[in-house]
Write a structure and sequence with these properties.
With 297 residues, the chain is mostly helical. The chain has one domain. The protein is built from eleven helices and two strands. Strands 1-2 form a two-stranded antiparallel ribbon. A hairpin with a 2-residue loop joins β1 (130-135) and β2. The protein starts with a helix and ends in a 14-residue tail after the last helix.
């Protein structure tokens, strides 16, 4: 039973990490905690359902479709809301408040268009294949969706780390994260990279929405709210803006929740997980990979 619970914790933690990747990317580059990310995540899930049911696309095309749709929403939020606030040198609290309003508006619009009831993916579109691995007298079962979630989270994290550490665009993003004004003075297209970051981060949120929708087979307008809470916890625990930390913190939170449900009770699920997170932050307030360096204006 313990081995199977570890598998369940791995898949749940990978879901949290997948959601948090885009969340932490926006903070690392733009310096903004985008609290509309949960609504973008929800929009991606609905885009995936529409791609499968209305347009008849296969599942492997529904993911890039959701990526593009969510990315365009994220780009629109940056251009219409965050960019004007940057020009006015608005305090950091103002973009947070603005994105809360955007998230509420998106939730209401989607609820008006699709209704408040749960939507499900069309029959036959969710892979039902299972794989069992046996060793030392134990048998562990994986579903195709669980395996895809874990592999996708690791692959996206590896791709983001490669881009940020090994490419010219990544070096420019790191320069912007250090000081946007200094990056602009050395000729970096700061606003262009801000928009690119917003598009990619929102697209990653959309992919997370589709995968979590497939995992639970339930999509509804407010599905992003609990994930937003978990995402904030993950990026704080992992270290604000650190991609490696997002993955490890997501796995930690997933394991903590699954183990608390299995051995304590489902009613204590969040209490145990967030209580452990609180204790870790008492010892390491900057998170697992956080630094003491502050962003320069």
């Amino acid at each position: 039973m313990l081995a199977q619970q570890l598998v369940n914790g791995l898949s749940l933690g990978a879901l949290y990490a997948l959601f948090a990747l885009g969340f932490t990317l926006v903070f690392g580059v733009l310096g903004v905690i985008n609290l509309s990310h949960g609504a973008i995540f929800m929009v991606g899930a609905y885009a995936g359902v529409e791609a499968l049911s209305r347009f008849g696309l296969p599942l492997w095309l529904a993911l890039p479709f959701a990526f593009v749709v969510s990315g365009l929403f994220g780009l629109a939020i940056d251009v219409l809301v965050l960019k004007p606030l940057r020009r006015r040198d608005a305090p950091h609290l103002i973009p947070m408040i603005a994105t809360i309003g955007i998230g509420i508006a998106l939730n209401n619009v989607v609820q008006g268009l699709f209704g408040a009831q749960n939507l499900r993916f069309p029959a036959g579109t969710i892979p039902t294949d299972t794989m069992e691995v046996g060793a030392f007298g134990l048998t562990i079962g994986f579903t195709a969706i669980e395996l895809a979630i874990v592999l996708l989270s690791i692959a996206l994290m590896a791709a983001l780390i490669f881009v940020i550490r090994r490419t010219q665009v990544g070096r420019a993003l790191r320069a912007i994260a250090e000081s946007p004004k200094a990056a602009y003075l050395v000729g970096i297209d700061v606003e262009g990279l801000f928009m690119l970051t917003s598009f990619v981060a929102a697209g990653l949120g959309g992919i997370a929405g589709v995968m979590i929708g497939l995992y639970s087979n339930a999509i509804y307008p407010l599905m992003g709210q609990p994930m937003l809470q978990k995402g904030v916890a993950v990026i704080i625990l992992g270290g604000m803006g650190d991609i490696r930390g997002a993955l490890l913190a997501g796995l930690f939170l997933g394991f903590a929740e699954v183990m608390s449900v299995a051995y304590i009770g489902s009613t204590m699920r969040d209490a145990v997980a967030f209580g452990m997170l609180f204790l870790i932050l008492l010892v390491r307030p900057k998170g697992l990979f956080g630094t003491t360096n502050e962003r320069k204006v």
